[in-house]
Amino acid sequence: MRLRWLGFHVLAVLAAICCFVFGYWQFERAQDPSRGEIVNPVEDPDAANQLRTVLDPGAYMPESEANTAVTTRGEYDTGAELLVPAISPAGEEGYNVVAPLVTEEGTAVAVHRGWVDGDTADTPDELAPLPEGEVTVTGWLQPPQKSEEGFVPMDLPEGQAERIAPSLLLDDWPYQLYEGYILLAGQDPANGGDQTGVRPQQVPPPEPPEEIEWNWRSLSYAAQWVVFGIAVLVFWIVLMRRETRGDHTDRGSGGAPPDGPGGEPGGPADTPDGASGNPARAQPSPTGTA
């Protein structure tokens, strides 16, 4: 086998393998959840971990920590409660209620207390009061809300925030904040002394998707890579067939020299004494002389 064809074989095989590997990679990506979508199962709050063992104040919170059951102790800053425009699980417009829980280290974590209907409360003063003194809070750790979550009115009055995200809450709270927030499952003591005011409805943690949501862009990329891989193999096979056919033609035409001019038998070299192969020249003349 010629050396250049050996190199071409290796190159074609590697190109085909790369195409199929990239196609499989894109196929796997097509089944991955969208960026920012929570896929972790909801943990049991009875087996909650201490917040400081899961996340450090100010540290980046990876999506893999979402729905982790955590617990921590601290005191609510009762004068810093905020309303965040949000859609309820039933699709109604209202507000998420969020308050800072200040730990003994002086850092704070945002606690999502629940959701209230916008027709019953649109300012923090209309809410049921927070417990005073030291409180033990248990819930599910959640990543900062994205800009596409919920809805944002054209004008945000005082006492409201755009979303539950430390980058925005720092404008209202003078604390070093944890990157995520706690979606409240329970607290001890449960309520403040005053029983008046609107009590937030508890919001369940997000459940991971049960079915595969296909990413059609990645799926189309996977199909393109497979087509490229097949094209490489077809091109390789066609070239090999042409090369093989050319080798057979060369061997068939180079086995024996031609018999005469133009490869035709019976040329001048085939006659004795160099005589021409023309019969008319071989006959004697009528007079008997040569």
UniProtKB/TrEMBL annotation:
<keyword id="KW-1003">Cell membrane</keyword>
<protein>
    <recommendedName>
        <fullName>SURF1-like protein</fullName>
    </recommendedName>
</protein>
<feature type="region of interest" description="Disordered">
    <location>
        <begin position="246"/>
        <end position="290"/>
    </location>
</feature>
<dbReference type="GO" id="GO:0005886">
    <property type="term" value="C:plasma membrane"/>
</dbReference>
<keyword id="KW-0472">Membrane</keyword>
<feature type="compositionally biased region" description="Gly residues">
    <location>
        <begin position="252"/>
        <end position="266"/>
    </location>
</feature>
<dbReference type="InterPro" id="IPR002994">
    <property type="entry name" value="Surf1/Shy1"/>
</dbReference>
<comment type="similarity">
    <text>Belongs to the SURF1 family.</text>
</comment>
<keyword id="KW-1133">Transmembrane helix</keyword>
<feature type="transmembrane region" description="Helical">
    <location>
        <begin position="6"/>
        <end position="25"/>
    </location>
</feature>
<dbReference type="Pfam" id="PF02104">
    <property type="entry name" value="SURF1"/>
</dbReference>
<feature type="compositionally biased region" description="Low complexity">
    <location>
        <begin position="267"/>
        <end position="277"/>
    </location>
</feature>
<feature type="transmembrane region" description="Helical">
    <location>
        <begin position="219"/>
        <end position="239"/>
    </location>
</feature>
<keyword id="KW-0812">Transmembrane</keyword>
<dbReference type="InterPro" id="IPR045214">
    <property type="entry name" value="Surf1/Surf4"/>
</dbReference>
<feature type="region of interest" description="Disordered">
    <location>
        <begin position="188"/>
        <end position="210"/>
    </location>
</feature>
